[in-house]
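tl;dr need the bound structure. longer version: we got a ligand (glycine) that a collaborator sent over and nobodys looked at where it sits. i said id run it. heres the input, straight from their email, havent touched it
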Amino acid sequence: MSRSLSRRDLLAAGAAVGLTGITPVGRAQTSPNRGMPVAVSSGNGLRATAKAMELLRAKADGLDAAIAGVNIVEEDPNDMSVGYGGLPNERGVVELDSCVMHGPSYKAGAVAALQNIKTPSRVAKVVMDRTDHILLVGAGALEFARMHGFEEANLLTDAARKAWVKWKESLSKEDDYEEPPSGGAQDAPRPTGTITCLTLNEKFELSGVTTTSGLAYKIPGRVGDSPIIGAGLYVDNEVGAAGSTGRGEAVILSSGSRIVVENMRHGMTPEEACLDVLRRICRYTVDPKLLRAPERPNFEVNFYAVNKKGEFGGARIYKGGTFAVHDGTTNAMRPLAYLYERP
Ligand code: GLY
């Protein structure tokens, strides 16, 4: 599809969102209280932004506030895309990915394919604080977490185990498992839910965290975008912060969050910056198995961003999502801008 047609689609989407009360494409959603702290999170992050704001108001460090926010969701067994209760890999083992980035010190830490620890974001923070490295993976990350006193737990809840069994029993009619009594799950999309939380404090310092159980039923050892600095998260204390949820492979390939931040550096609003990277992802996706039609991927990616001025925005490929923002006054879900109507 030509670039001009994409722009037309985009304008049509902008007109459509105007009608439905969604923020027109590219217009910055701004905190009404410049100089007040801001917390931005994904659609599952309303409790995270509330907690982060509570701590920001108490003058906590911006990264500590963001991490405390996402810890609520990491420890919640009912969120099946993050931390404890997350959907497991293809062998039924929960493997978690997370990274953190602290704008004022320009430091970062991350863990990937971490088992048995409910709060990988906290381990990522300890990697940042207590090592000269940025990313620890697998057995090394678990050993490191044990060394720092993190408690181990079985992360596979009964609900997540049952979902995995259903997926496994649905894989093939030729294997030795009976079809699940409730019917097959072959066509059900495999979730890639995640939480990200970005903060701007009263000193205009930026921080962020992203944490996930990753793609459900992934190949053991698969690492998505969430623990990759520049992909699932990026913070530049002079410019802004961005995080992502959705198909990690697309976000890694596009260096998504880093490019969102660079776009803001070059003058785009947070929302425009997110939409620009989404357009690139759509244009560059050419593998037929990932496409519904040319430039129409069959997956979703969401970006969230906040700039140094406290302006924030979020966007996704297809219409339909929301994100959580505490703008210093109100904690609320807001509609994500989008490129296309859902086919
Ligand atoms: N964005 C989460 C993942 O792909 O693992």
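gonna send this back to them w/ a short note. Confidence is low (pLDDT under 50) at residues 1-24.
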